[in-house]
Write a structure and sequence with these properties.
There is one protein chain. The chain is mainly beta and about 150 residues long. About 10% of the residues lie in helices and about 35% in strands. It contains two helices and eleven strands. The strands form two sheets. It has an eight-stranded mixed sheet with strand order 6-7-8-9-4-3-10-11. A hairpin with a 5-residue loop joins strand 7 and strand 8. The model has no long low-confidence stretch (mean pLDDT about 95).
């Protein structure tokens, strides 16, 4: 499915939290880790790795949910408890947005999947690139460049 023209919008289930994406993602992913399985109640989480300046919260407020750790902050709607996005505690220049919360998520397809060592045996994503764990930090720049060359027109 072709990528839509940006901006695109999305929101939580109840609609109190809304966001806008103004740029194409750095990459489309699925994470199979046990934490994502538990937070989504599904086999994996869907993620648009967005440049931080391409993401804006346009309505509502979020609360920190999931793990209340030092490294990442999982933002949820305080009313419906939907997991909307994740920000690293350190400013690393990106925000992970739950792809299925887009108003039209039909174009989303995981290009990369991570944490396949924890994946449920029946879970298939069709991702072009797979990692048993997370890629090494130094590999992300090349992965983003490859994804964008293949997927972003």
């Amino acid at each position: 499915m072709p990528m839509p023209p940006f901006p695109v919008e999305g929101g939580c289930r109840c609609g109190r939290v809304r966001f806008r994406l103004t740029q194409a993602p750095w990459v489309e992913t699925a994470c199979h880790c046990f934490g994502c399985q538990k937070m989504t109640g599904s086999a994996f989480s869907t993620t648009l790795v967005m440049p931080a300046d391409g993401f804006e919260l346009i309505a509502g407020d979020t609360v920190i949910g999931g793990l209340h750790g030092q490294d990442v902050h999982h933002h949820h709607c305080d009313w419906c408890k939907g997991w909307v996005f994740t920000r690293p505690a350190a400013d690393l220049g990106f925000v992970n947005v739950r792809a299925t919360l887009l108003d039209d998520a039909s174009w989303f397809a995981p290009w990369m999947e991570t944490q396949t060592a924890e994946k449920l045996p029946w879970a298939k994503t069709g991702a072009a690139v797979s990692f048993d764990r997370f890629p090494a930090q130094e590999d992300y720049q090349g992965l983003v460049a490859l994804y964008r060359a293949e997927r972003v027109q």
